[in-house]
Design brief:
Layout: H1 4-8, H2 18-35, H3 39-45, H4 50-58, H5 77-90, H6 97-111, H7 114-126, E1 131-134, E2 150-154, E3 157-168, E4 175-181, E5 191-197, E6 204-209, E7 220-231, H8 243-279, E8 281-282, E9 285-286, H9 291-319, H10 325-349, H11 360-368, H12 378-386
Parallel strand pairs: 1-4
Antiparallel strand pairs: 2-3, 3-7, 4-5, 6-7, 8-9
């Protein structure tokens, strides 16, 4: 099969150092050898086995950007981006390590106390703990100020009450960062982030593993907190009310990684489609020989190349500390829109076979759709960009 990297043949960006390239190769082999052979079963069961997480931890693929002193590999977002590419290029998009690595762990690194970092990060790096972040509620999605989950202080504990939905890794997760109101009267300023180790509390319940259109292998769940008591020491940050600011500070990276997932899937869609149209014949000649096919693939290659160049530039900016929220929003919305377009056009070039689940393009078609919704809808992204005009 044609490799996605061979499709674009771009010069290696500066952020892809030798060790980042080596990590991509290793992650690609791991996903192909350890995850892909079981992926149909994971899709059928709608969850990735915990053993896969533990293998990923043993291979050094969990918390690659966390410092070595906390059990990580001492890398940066460049290393996380290599893992994002490997996951998408192999086609195991429902394996939720990207959120675990590049969203959950950074909250603890950036806002946790030394004691919290030593307690949780090594166990996240090994796969003993699987991470989730519980933001969305039945009545509050992109509007994080509208959350109702309450954390009331009771001595040296918080009592958590509320419900969350659409939580990635929700069935597997045993470390959940909960977005809660510690002072509802203060609005956004009354929001805090509180870590719950689910194995150590009473009153925590998992709802159903939600029946989604795509990303079937990822367990996406409802979570319920019924008088769940956790130590006040589980608050992230030096004081209550810092949660909304913490969320806003970390959302650019979340939106950038969604952009990374998008362009990497577009590259894979292009690769499998080029292979298909070279082999499939119509009217006695390969589909690639038709001018319409050539023109369509030329357009898709051009746009995917533009997407990769933009993403690479955003990663460079982010590593330098200069990725502003508006540009991150551009990356999230434009690249996920591009992903949808490329996958749809590639499915069309497969003809009727593209609609068959046995072909990888069909799974990509299902999996791609949510990218325009989570991490803030693309409509919200446009509003955020418009505010900077």
């Amino acid at each position: 099969m044609t490799a996605p990297a061979e499709i674009l043949s771009l010069p290696r960006p500066t952020w892809v150092t030798d060790d980042v390239a080596m990590l991509y190769d290793m992650a690609h082999r791991f996903m192909a050898d350890e995850i892909a052979p079981h992926y149909d079963a994971y899709e059928k069961n709608e969850i990735v086995d915990r053993s896969a997480w533990e293998k990923a931890g043993a291979a050094g693929l969990l918390c690659a950007s966390m410092p070595e002193e906390y059990g990580g590999a001492g890398g940066s977002f460049a290393h996380e981006s290599a893992i994002i590419d490997a996951v998408a290029h192999v086609g195991v998009d429902g394996f939720g390590i990207v959120l675990h690595n590049a969203i959950v762990a950074p909250y603890i690194l950036h806002y946790g106390s030394e004691e919290q970092k030593k307690k949780w990060l090594p166990r996240l790096a090994s796969g003993e703990l699987i991470g989730a972040i519980a933001m969305t509620e039945p009545g509050a999605g992109s509007d994080l100020q509208g959350i109702k989950t309450r954390a009331e202080k009771d001595g040296n504990q918080y009592r958590l009450n509320g419900s969350k939905t659409f939580i990635t890794n929700g069935q597997n997760a045993n470390l959940v960062i909960v977005v809660a109101k510690t002072d509802p009267a203060q609005g956004a300023k009354g929001t805090s982030l509180i870590v719950v180790e689910t194995d150590e509390v009473e009153g925590f319940e998992r709802g159903r593993n939600l029946d989604k259109i795509g990303l079937k292998a990822n367990d996406t769940s409802e979570l319920f907190f019924n008088d769940v008591r956790v130590p006040t020491a589980n608050l992230l940050g030096s004081e209550e009310g810092q949660g909304f600011v913490q969320l806003m500070q970390q959302l650019p990276q979340e939106r950038l990684l969604i952009g990374g997932q998008a362009v990497a899937m577009a590259e894979r869609a292009l690769a499998v489609t080029i292979d298909y149209v070279k082999e499939r014949q119509a009217f006695g000649r390969p589909i690639l020989d038709f001018q319409n096919t050539q023109f369509k693939l030329a357009e898709l290659k051009t746009e995917t190349t533009i997407g990769r160049v933009f993403y690479n530039d955003c990663v460079t900016r982010h590593l330098d500390g200069g990725l502003d929220p508006s540009t991150a929003s551009m990356a999230k919305y434009w690249l996920s829109d591009l992903q949808g377009k490329v996958v749809d056009e590639c499915l069309q070039l497969h003809g009727g076979y593209g609609y068959m689940n046995e072909y990888p393009i069909a799974r990509m078609y299902r999996d791609a759709r949510v990218q325009r919704i989570y991490g803030g809808t693309n409509e919200i992204m446009k509003l955020l960009i418009a505010r900077t005009l």
